[in-house]
Amino acid sequence: GASADWWNNMHFQHHSKPNVIDKDPDTRVEPIFVLGDKIPIRAAHRNAKYGKNLPYNLQYLYFFIGKDKYIVKSFIL
Which pLDDT value is given to residue 75? Predict the structure, then answer.
């Protein structure tokens, strides 16, 4: 598992800015899907800089593939 320091860092970041995009680590969902008008553009520019290309226009298809991971994770917590 992860170290206690890592968990504390993520925990304190979450509670200092809960549900604030780009500040709360629990709201970082860009690897899976993006929402809104500005976040998809920002995520595409960031990914292009690192040579990654994820087709966000198909996110409605692969959301259902990854949803089980998040359902299981919510029951574990």
Answer: 59
